[in-house]
Design a protein that fits this description.
2 copies of one chain form a homodimer.
Chain A lengths: L1 E5 H11 L14 E7 L2 E7 L3 E8 L1 E2 L2 E2 L1 E5 L1 E6 H10 L4 E6 L4 E6 L2 E6 L17 E5 H12 L13 E7 L2 E7 L3 E8 L1 E2 L5 E7 H10 L6 E6 L3 E6 L2 E6 L18 E6 H15 L6 E6 L4 E8 L3 E8 L2 E4 L3 E5 H10 L4 E6 L6 E5 L5 E5 L7
Antiparallel strand pairs in A: 1-7, 1-9, 2-3, 2-8, 3-4, 4-20, 5-6, 9-10, 10-11, 12-16, 12-18, 13-14, 13-17, 14-15, 15-29, 18-19, 19-20, 21-25, 21-27, 22-23, 22-26, 23-24, 27-28, 28-29
Helix pairs in contact in A: 3-4, 5-6
Chain lengths: 380, 380
Amino acid sequence: MKLTILKNELNDAIGHVSKAISSRTTIPILTGIKIEATYQGLTLTASDTDISIQSFIPIDKDNETIIQVTKAGSIVLPAKFFIEIIKKLPSQNIEIEVNDSFQISIRSGSSDIQMVGMDPEEFPILPRIEENHVLSVPGDLLKTMVRQTGFAVSTNESTPVLTGILWKMAEGSLKLLATDRHRLATREAAIEADSDLNFNNIVISGKTLNELSKIIPDQNTLVDIVVADNQVLFKIDNVLFYSRILDGTYPDTSKIIPQVYKTELVLRTKAFTDAIDRAYLLSREEKTNIVKLITQDEKNVEISSSSSELGKFTEQLEVETMTGEELKISFNSKYMLDVLKVIDSEFIHIGFTGAMSPIIIKPNDHVNSLYLILPYRTTN
Amino acid sequence: MKLTILKNELNDAIGHVSKAISSRTTIPILTGIKIEATYQGLTLTASDTDISIQSFIPIDKDNETIIQVTKAGSIVLPAKFFIEIIKKLPSQNIEIEVNDSFQISIRSGSSDIQMVGMDPEEFPILPRIEENHVLSVPGDLLKTMVRQTGFAVSTNESTPVLTGILWKMAEGSLKLLATDRHRLATREAAIEADSDLNFNNIVISGKTLNELSKIIPDQNTLVDIVVADNQVLFKIDNVLFYSRILDGTYPDTSKIIPQVYKTELVLRTKAFTDAIDRAYLLSREEKTNIVKLITQDEKNVEISSSSSELGKFTEQLEVETMTGEELKISFNSKYMLDVLKVIDSEFIHIGFTGAMSPIIIKPNDHVNSLYLILPYRTTN
């Protein structure tokens, strides 16, 4: 293998695939990035077995030559050092040469690095995925959907399926759902796809989707999603992002969402967030994060919290509208803040079905998202 | 105690004194901030016994009323919660009321916080310092002097005096010096002070001076420094910063600085920094950070490093001027980078007195700072 390549382009590709490198892996070959040169371009691959990412750099782009390949070939390089040294090379032009015994030279300006790489034959081969079922989602929408649900996944590895986000596709609508048994978040959106494309029980790790979000550029990009038996492939420009589908059956949550409410509030999102945030400061001293909400009259609710160590907090908050019964309810303020942080609307609607029933929070201006928090059972 | 105060002013003062709160203290009263209201203003005090900081808020500033004191008094409040809740209060106006049993109410907008404070009598009394010896140093100069020496203090608590920076004042010149036995940094500056103000062996913790630097504003501020028997007081506007002087005799380092060189190099600071930074990447894999510098001819030096795991790095670097003998020397690249980071000049001068003698680095355009690194003894 012998080639020259522009530093910035190599850096960008390294930045993409580096998301799949785990520092905790015990398999030596997976601490490396595989680079493979053909006369069409350079392919970088990294994998931690859960995620695999491949980034392709074409030999030219917009009439600019990016790579000149003199000899095709491949090698696996230790990722940590490779990532950092490429960033710091003195010149925009980088020359890479590999001999038959995996000896590699990297030259740039008057810098010269001599390394020993690893055998590319040892690197895991990425799965072939048949592209029968493809859906296309705008990148910024996909990032929003992941952000608006991912916070609710479980961090408890004892039920692996709950550490993931459930993906459902039916009748041209994609729905993401996450729950850790104490709270639930869903987000839905109409998506361009074959009308016969339906799936259910596709669960992808929340952490993985968070890494995926970091790779999706902010500007308009369409992400093609290919769903296979045990893998999902996300295609973003020249990057292929493979994720394992989590094993297990996702619990049916449809029955826990109440359809009628006994008390309904419309609140200004910012004012409610700020009040809960203040109440949270005291509540977290007790680890439980308990905050109490009590309806006062048609115009006000009282938000309060207390800590045996520090004291107590009370605030009167004006509501936009209130309908239904009087209410006294306790909930985890941290869970409420997590929901409020991902709601971009000016007003929110909160529906209650009694002090022991799930609390439902929705943005007031559309029906695409729904958040649920279970209340605390308290003695008064 | 009863008063109203503007949130921003209270926040700023809390921000200053909070630097003296240690999260590791076992003395309950020191987890608090003491607030004391008089009809002149509000004084906040915090202390971790090594550092004590006092910030005074006058009742008015620039014809604006900041505080209205209805009743004088004092209280100690739990710092962590107090710092955060004040920041998050809904209104610019804050009302604070304390009764005789240390019950405190904080009200702002429709928020109401009820807390129990601690007895201010239990809070340590700050030392009275006689202001016989005062020197005034411009704030930005003081920050620079601390930055240019503080990195070289020892982190090994077994010789406490070396964790500090040595302050010397003689003939109108202030000199700061730090060493951890492997390297040394000094910075000198002419200072306005009484001509008879001389001191030596004043050693102040590097960490403490780092905290002090964070309090000094960026714009032109004069810091008055009062040196007493076992304390130094720094006065910055309305903030008093007390620091303990470290016990022990600082070692005499004057004899280890060579006065003549066998080899001298002038190098472009940025180019040398970048080359050492690249070499460092490989060298740190061996934990020793060894980088080798070899003079090539009158125009070039070779910088190299190696790692048994990864490989080796070599770079040719053009020098501005070179005089004296040929040289082959090894040193800790991390120590060299630490020096290069604090040198603001375009060119540096490096003096060598042989492969086993201290390396002296100076900015090429002034004589106010000097850095020393001991070389490594290597076999070839």
